[in-house]
Amino acid sequence: MIKLASSKECTGCMACVDSCPHNVIMPVIKKDGHRYPEIDHLQCVSCGRCQKVCPVINHFDYCSDSKYKPLLAWAKDDNIRLRSTSGGIFAALATYVLKNGGLVCGCIMDGLRAKHIIIDSYDELSKLQGSKYLHSEMTGIYKAIKKELQRGDRMVLYSGTRCLVAGLLSYLGKSYDNLITLDLVCSGVPSSLLTKFHEGRYSTIASFRDKEKGWDVGIHSTLVDKNGNKCKNTEDSSIIDELKVSVLTIRSSCLDCKFATPHSKADLTTMDYWGEKEHKEEHFKGVSCVIPNTEKGKKILEQSDVNTITSEWSKCLPYNPRIAYGKYFGAKFNLFRVFMPFLFNHCSKRIIQLLYVDKLSWKTSLMIPMKLYKYGMWKIMIIHTERSINKILEKGL
Q1: With 80 as the cut, is the pLDDT of residue 58 above it?
Q2: Helical spans, DSSP H, in the chain
Q3: pTM here?
């Protein structure tokens, strides 16, 4: 009987779904709010194709031997940059590809869910801009990209988290000269349960972060209600704002990311450049850290409308540890994480806000041990991560 990656290791890349020649694997959202592949064993012929493309089962090597240094970067076009979550690198690369007749694959919001689509027009690019702090539905995307790559007459830019880029590369099984991959360093994929209390009241999420007060302080999500009104910094958005970068709801595989590496198989790697101190005049509009991993990636970056400044690993890695270190030490034992599926599925929004958004006062006796527990778990994780990053820097990159 065919067995896929366990729920603790599955990244949700869904390469297995697109690989199945008999369409007997379907993505299913389980009680933790995450999407997992499920096989109809009555229809499965045990061809093994799904296991061959799974980057977890086949131990896909996502590390490269590149020696390029990290770069501080931002898009030269302020309109592109301000619509983006950080420095606008993805949008600048996408603009170059689209203007040269290519295709761009990225994530959009479809209601309260995220999904990947392929576009061929600059007019559609704005939908792909901005971070989406939800797992993206990938079904059908790998097939569509492979079809375009095999035609060979257009460039294809593919953007996704590192596990999603690993999923595509493993699915393709070979390199394509007309494929450009951009992987995004993330802190983990949050559960779709974050939007559970918004269903029926809101039509979509316009943005998960904004630059109204600047890149490094724009943390609030903007919801769109059924009447088209935008709502920000409200009780309804507080659950998303508090938990979108928290270890308490992310996939189990994200607690020990197998694809965290300074140099990956993607052509380019990008993320927010947290901790940047030398060009603060650029912070309001947003800055990114970019790591070229291939000569192809380096060339496409140079040809795009982007400003770059060479940086050092010692400057970016301590503030962006997920580049090289994928573990959240002790997080799987955090009781707020262990009981998260049960609490979100059985408790009211008010209870969830009290437990996860710290709405209780310090004067409430129950809150004191809860806050101390949360702080202690967080501190243990931070100390372990800092020590691990120091060891990586000592070894040299």
Answers
A1: yes
A2: 15-19, 49-53, 78-83, 89-99, 125-128, 141-151, 162-172, 235-243, 295-303, 313-316, 335-338, 340-346, 349-356, 367-395
A3: 0.94
